[in-house]
Design goal:
With 196 residues, this protein is mostly helical. Helix content is 69%, strand content 0%. The protein has twelve helices and no strands. Helix 6 packs parallel to helix 9 and helix 8 crosses helix 11. The longest helix has 18 residues.
Length: 196
């Protein structure tokens, strides 16, 4: 549809339907993913045309995160996660951040093989939430701070995080590397509104 609001609301409804029905729609996930994929893989020119502020992409990412959380075994994570990571950070609908980043954090905690193979990219995505000027809401920032610190303390993740931070300046850039390093050390305060 040419209208972003239609694409945005359609993606949101698909995500909520998948969440509400849990595993019942899992057999249909390949078709749903096929329908959602074009929203995540648009060129910069396509994303900037018309009324597109990016909320349709953000809601599509959130819909896919809801699918993963409902039935992870029904989602080809090896193919889907790189698309999600390429489409981050969020552009307009920052309320979807909690769902998307929490999904990524849960996959890391479960030591999902596909997610672990993309560990540095996922950690970098969490770090983008924390850089100066990030429009992520305070709850998403608090979640990212806590997750990065937990990863730094986890015997299963700390070496991977350390290696990712070491390569960070060349892969993430200095701002994200600094944000991840500060959060990992436990020296990044939680945002005020989420600490209450």
């Amino acid at each position: 549809d040419p209208m972003e609001s239609v694409r945005r609301n359609s993606a949101f409804c698909v995500g909520m339907l998948c969440q509400a029905t849990e595993k019942q729609l899992a057999p249909h996930f390949p078709h749903i993913l096929h329908c959602l994929a074009p929203l995540c893989q648009r060129t910069a020119e396509e994303q900037n045309g018309g009324d597109s502020g990016g909320a349709d992409i953000d809601n599509t990412l959130s819909a896919v995160a809801r699918m993963i959380r409902s039935a992870p075994e029904a989602v080809p994570l090896q193919q889907v996660l790189p698309v999600i990571l390429d489409a981050l950070p969020l552009r307009a609908d920052h309320e979807e951040g909690e769902n998307i980043y929490n999904c990524l954090i849960d996959l890391l905690k479960s030591k999902d093989e596909a997610t672990m193979s993309l560990f540095a990219r996922v950690a970098g995505a969490l770090g983008t939430v924390l850089v100066e000027g990030s429009k992520s809401n305070d709850a998403t920032k608090a979640m990212a701070i806590t997750a990065i610190h937990d990863l730094a303390m986890s015997p299963d993740h700390k070496d991977l995080l350390s290696a990712a931070v070491g390569a960070g300046p060349s892969t993430w850039g200095p701002e994200v590397t600094q944000a991840v390093t500060t959060a990992a050390s436990g020296n990044m305060p939680l945002p005020t509104s989420s600490a209450e």
